Amino acid sequence: MVFPDYRPRRFRRNAQLRSLIRETRLSPEQFIYPLFVMPGKGVREEISSMPGVFRMSVDQLGKEAKEIMSLGLNHVILFGLPEKKDPVGSGAHAKDGIIQKAIKELKNKTPDLMVTTDVCLCEYTSHGHCGVLINKQVDNDATLEILGQVALSHAKAGADIVAPSDMMDGRVAEIRGILDENDFDMVPIMSYAVKYASAFYGPFRDAAECAPQEGDRQGYQMDPANAREALREATLDVDEGADILMVKPAVAYLDIIKSLREEFDLPIAAYHVSGEYAMIKAAGERGWIDADRVMAETLLSIHRAGADIIITYGAKEMARMLNG
Ligand code: PBG
Fold this sequence. Notes:
Elements: H1 15-20, E1 31-38, E2 44-46, E3 54-57, H2 61-70, E4 75-80, H3 98-109, E5 114-119, E6 133-134, E7 137-138, H4 140-157, E8 161-164, H5 171-181, E9 190-195, H6 202-207, H7 228-240, E10 244-248, H8 254-263, E11 268-272, H9 274-285, H10 291-305, E12 309-312, H11 315-323
Parallel strand pairs: 1-3, 1-4, 1-12, 4-5, 5-8, 9-10, 10-11, 11-12
Antiparallel strand pairs: 2-3, 6-7
The chain binds ligand PBG.
């Protein structure tokens, strides 16, 4: 059937008809909101390159969590700024480390809020790399055992999901093994399976103080030019026991999200990263775009491409929009 018998505009006539045939919808339960936790008391400071996003001390988390839940959001991912850094990132698995304390505080104040933790060393190493250095190189196998300890310490503190973001080979198997040995076989792994060496992480690195002191992350994060390799990375993580596959960043990699969605039957997550958020906010502040509408359209595109779960700094404003 072609024009004039078929008229796609028939369903665009009013809001109800448009809504009737809408293929993709966003809802607050799909979002995971990142929180940055820092030492101190009574601290809540806005991150200059991420307007509307705050770094805060552990004692502020309860209030924040209640606000998050009041918007219909039920999931956060935690990033920590430790008091001290060292070459092997000991702070990442310290029993009284910043993240371990943050998880306990959240589980105490808002037990129903899901807490995912980022498992990585870059915020905890003095050199800012995601693993330990041997002869100035990030050593894969020496890093694995430490990552296992980090994931275990998060699970012990009460984390609901652990999310390794370091990009060491074999870390999902290592983490699954150590969690299972310690009776945490019910804690899922959300693997940053496909994480590109991206310039879009800029604002995050300021926020979490984790830029590498020397060199960059191209020795372990993926080359943005590679799409087939994304399937290989994801296959490895599935075989090692990942429960959720993540693609990161999101908007510049919608093709990758789509191909993972088609190839795998696991839940797919996408990380709408700091730079992607900051660009919308900055253009909005200048009056060049309507930031709310662009945020909504952007997050919708990530979901339409195939992401079931979206990690985004825009979760709160998006939830407000959805709640009307
Ligand atoms: C830690 C980590 C990073 C991000 C999430 N986990 C930084 C990096 O890999 O350099 C970036 C998130 C963002 O930009 O919002 N490895």
